[in-house]
Fold this sequence. Notes:
Order of helices and strands of chain A: HHHHHHHEEHHHHHHH
CATH class of chain B: Alpha Beta
Helix content of chain A: 55-70%
Number of domains of chain B: 1
Number of helices of chain A: 14
Radius of gyration of chain A: 23 Å
Strand content of chain B: 15-25%
Distance between the termini of chain B: 54 Å
Number of helices of chain B: 10
CATH class of chain A: Mainly Alpha
Radius of gyration of chain B: 19 Å
Strand content of chain A: under 5%
Largest interface: A-B, 42 and 53 residues
Number of strands of chain A: 2
Shape of chain A: globular
Number of strands of chain B: 10
Strand order of the largest sheet of chain A: 1-2
CATH topology of chain A: ABC transporter involved in vitamin B12 uptake, BtuC
CATH architecture of chain A: Orthogonal Bundle
Distance between the termini of chain A: 29 Å
Strand order of the largest sheet of chain B: 6-7-8-3-9-10
Structural class of chain A: mainly alpha
Oligomer: heterodimer
Largest sheet of chain A: 2 strands, antiparallel
Structural class of chain B: alpha/beta
CATH superfamily of chain B: P-loop containing nucleotide triphosphate hydrolases
Amino acid sequence: MSTPVATQSPPTPSSPDGPVRVERSLGARVLGRPEIGAFAAAVVIFVFFFVIAPPFRTPEALSTILYSASTIGIVALGVALLMIGGEFDLSSGVAVTTSALASAMLSYQLSLNVWVGVIVSLVISLAIGALNGWLLVKTKLPSFLITLSTFFVLQGVNLGVTKLVTGTVATTNINQLDGFASARTIFAGDIPLGFMTLKASVIWWLVFVAVATWILLRTRTGNWIFAVGGNQDSARAVGVPVAKVKIGLFMGVAFMAWFLGQHLLMNFSTVQAGLGVGNELIYIVAAVVGGALLTGGFGSAIGAAIGAFIFGMTTQGIVYAGWDPNWFKTFLGVMLLLAVLVNLYIKNSASKRK
Amino acid sequence: MTDTIAEHASHDLTAGTPLVAMSGVGKTYGAIRALEGVDLTVRAGEVTCVLGDNGAGKSTLIKIMSGLHPHSEGTLTVDGGEVRFGSPRESLDRGIATVYQDLAVVSLMEVWRNFFLGSELRRGNFPLAPLDIGKMREIADAELKKMGIHVKDINQPIGTLSGGQRQCVAIARAVYFGARVLILDEPTAALGVKQSGVVLKYTAAARDAGLGVVFITHNPHHAYMVGDHFIILKLGRRVLDRTRAEVSLEELTAEMAGGQELAELSHELQR
């Protein structure tokens, strides 16, 4: 028992003492990535619209597509991380509106600096996220039910409170308030690049994707997110703080919803209280198309970004091609079905014995 | 293989020292009594086998030791001090590591990520400090190789390994992180003959390195190959408690198969 068990390892000339392992081929590793299906689909769709719709080929069109993608992608990113952690959030669409309304009404009604509204709205948003997570951890109910309740509660609160405060279903224009100009520059400014002009939200979106990717793959927190989604009981048994991770993920979605809410507010300087219903499903679809498994434990931040980019391309591409925009929803359904099939195939081949 | 385990095992372990002791431990889930009045001592350098049929209370027993559920009566002492674990982390911090039959690993995560899950190496101690991925890969790779666990690629998802290999990775992980007491929950239940043999070898190696091993199984043959002390549970109660010298494999098998009840049944069924 004192000598190592003979394992018949193939010799490696370069490092005779080093570990002897067989590297999987580059092809196998690339095909095992969660975002590969989305990437292929994005290329096909891009080429398709590039060929059939001449206006699609201009830099201005690319700028519009990226902007459209960023408004989906920012929250979809938080949703993707939550889904990798094994949970859903159906309240993310209306939470965006809640954050914008809170910020707009606070600063207008109390005649405060816009930034005060922005910060208080952040606190409210994070509290909603924390409440979702806390309820989930405490009751152990499916996140579907908990966030469905939050969805209805927020939808009602958005309309009810706005009507009580302003008498209408939209907030008063806030563009005359102190701090609006600086807040607009940060959340919704235009960034001239010479050949095209980008919205600040696009830049923020790309920064968030980079940060999320780094968290997922390079930090302990990321390791825990995958573990909690992949096998909650195993994770708990080796000492991962499952409850904290889940609450944190819900707060992450809430942060992203807050950011998009502030962007919309600064971009249009007023918000409709009924906005956002239905968007939660688009965020989920973008995450799933980007390779996130509905059952958790697998997915990527870049995938969710590609998923959002696909939807940005399609919403704009349909317009550029001169078609009826109503077809977008049909496209959404087809993409979701294809994505689920591709994900299933990848999951099966990744967990199969080789 | 033994050398590897001995290298990481705590040096204060002397064979025969009681590490974990249970006295009159019981557990109720609402109106259901899952475990009642169990006495058990886990000693360094010994394998304590806990046998029992489904529903005998084996899982409840290990859940108490590993901190998943606190006990509701009796006393649990670790290294002479009374404890009551509120979370698996507390139990791990006292050097008690559990390798579960079904929830040993996260199958979609890479081998090295599984090896270090919950005890990741980081370059710094601030929130979101980067992981030391290179070093973790290297250590996981070297540890597995030293123990003779041959995986194709340390970066492959652990779900692509065989059941026996997954158990061995989990055991290697527990030993590497300085476990003093190793609880193995039905490690051979889902395995073939050859793979069971490999797992039993690691169990023996862990014992020889001075760890206290709790081996949960319903297979008396596997238990008798490595065990020093045998406890049989039935409906939450201890029905047999003997050392290896006091019991034969035949007695153990008969007791596990139902003992007196089986004899009566066979008498009834006689034509």
